[in-house]
Predict the structure of Acetoin utilization protein AcuC.
Amino acid sequence: MSRSVRVVWDDRLISYDFGPSHPLAPVRVELTMALARELGVLDKVELVGCSPATDDELALVHRRDYIEAVKRVSATGRPDLSCGLGTVDNPAFAGVHEASALITGASIAASRAVWTGQAEHALNIAGGLHHAMPGLASGFCVYNDPAVGIAWMLEHGARRVAYVDVDVHHGDGVQAIFHDDPRVLTISLHESPRTLFPGTGFPSETGVEGTAVNVALPAGCGDAGWLRAFHAVVPPLLREFQPEVLFSQQGCDTHALDPLAHLMLSLDGQRQAYAALHALAHETAAGRWVATGGGGYELVQVVPRAWSHLIAEAAGAPIDPQTVTPQSWREFVSLRTGEVPPLHMTDGRTPEHRDFSAGYDPADSVDRAIMATRKAVFPFHGLDPMP
């Protein structure tokens, strides 16, 4: 399916580091790249470097005074709560501007490669910092690299970009930035804001002309319910919107082992989502697909396997889930983290879901979430909310 695939990588991307006790540990990305390399996945893609986003590029979505405030914190390491740096979620650290700008530069590089035709698909697994607001750091995110990447494409002629966010947390920053821009369709599937940060992402948040779409899933939702919701909402909207580019945020914190949230997906359910997004990029966006990482706080058991599968799927060479993780990688994990690494590239599940077209069950909490979203936004797009 894939003609050319780029993975944007620079070893300096792991410098985005809030400290040893912070959940967003850069080792998760380090272990992912190591696993993908040992599995031969990186042999199937073009590995390219990146440069930091310039102030002008950051200013496509961020306020100039905010960028200057982050630079001041970066130079001194001293907190500045007016810009959101110095909190428990977003500790201040020396070099925070440079580290954040490099991640954003990587998402710009991925977006540029896809928009200009240098690659059909491009990935920045260190990116996906979707909570950052125009003038405020939030939720472990300083600069909103997905929004900057999308804004870069709009600045260079894109007229319709679809953003699909499968992180367990609502993609609030990206939604807020493009809330009034009908050129960008934002779709976020996440745990209900009633039980999880950031407390937004209700179906009633519809943006301009229904271009903000929110599927708020109940805590405890597993593979079958999540996949049912995805297929009931995402494909019909993408087919109607016909984006020129599909941009996805691939947070894997929907996994049952994730310590910060309450959905119950398996690695195998997440793999099905990757395959579905890949197919939809080809069906609805002429194959143009930009993907980033995102949340994911089970650093050894989940993130490296999930995103190695993501890269392999984008490369058109999915990994057999029964594959044994390489011994050399397991030794590296033990040495690097002291933890026992996973042995296989699967959780041993074979997820199945009922298609929503088979009927709506008002007694089912997932179906109620699906219907709330479809009723809120489908009429804007000329679609029937009923199955």
